[in-house]
Amino acid sequence: MKLEWSHTVLNIKDSVKILQFYTKTLGFNLSDRGPLAENGPEIIFVSQDSDEHHQLAFIVGREDVDKSTSLNHLSFRVKTFDEVYEVKERLDSADVEYLPLCHGNALSLYFNDPEGNGIEVFFDTPWDVAQPQGVVWDTSLTEKEALEWVERTFEKEPTFAKREESAREFVNRK
Questions:
Q1: CB 108 within 8 A of CB 101
Q2: Is the pTM of this model over 0.90?
Q3: Which CATH number fits domain 74-165: 1.10.8.60, 3.40.50.300, 3.90.226.10, 3.30.720.110?
Q4: CA distance 52 to 102
Q5: Regarding beta strands 118-124 and 106-112, do their DSSP bridges make them parallel or antiparallel, or are they unpaired?
Q6: For 140, which DSSP code?
Q7: Nearest-CA neighbor of 37 among 14, 55, 59?
Q8: Which fold has domain 8-60?
Q9: How far is residue 106's CA from residue 124's CA, in Å, rounded to a whole number?
C-alpha cells in the first residue's frame, strides 16, 4: 500500500485574513465553501491543482489563535527554483517574515500564515544527505549560485551524494 498526501484541514478563526493570504499571497483558488452541517461551522476548500478539489480546507471556529496546535507545518514542493523565488517575492510583498533554510536536499522557505500555522515551500536539490540538516541560505542567489553554495556547504558530509547515486534507503529517486 502506498498512501499519498491528499489534503490538510486547519481550524481557523478569521476566514477573511486566511483566504486573503492563501489566495493572494500563495496563489490558491477557492473551490467550495459552506456549512459542514445545518447550523454547523463553515468549511472552505482551496486548491492550486485543477485535478484536486481541495489541497487545503479551513473550518471556521477556532477560538484562540494564541494557543498552539499539534501542527508543526504544512509542506509544499515546487518543481523549479524560480517558483521558490516567486513565493519569496510574494511573501516580501505581503510583508511576511520567513526563514530560508537549506537541508542539503532542499532549499526551503519557512513562514507562518496569519493565524500562526507553519508552512514550508521547498525545491529539491539534486543531492541527498542524511537529515536533519539546516543552514540558512541567501535568497538573493541565482539558481546556479544557490546550487553551487549547497554543494560547497554540504559536500563534506559523509552521506552527501547525487540523489541518483545515493546508497541510502528511502531516497526519493526521480
A1: yes
A2: no
A3: 3.30.720.110
A4: 29
A5: antiparallel
A6: T
A7: 59
A8: 2,3-Dihydroxybiphenyl 1,2-Dioxygenase; domain 1 (3.10.180)
A9: 4
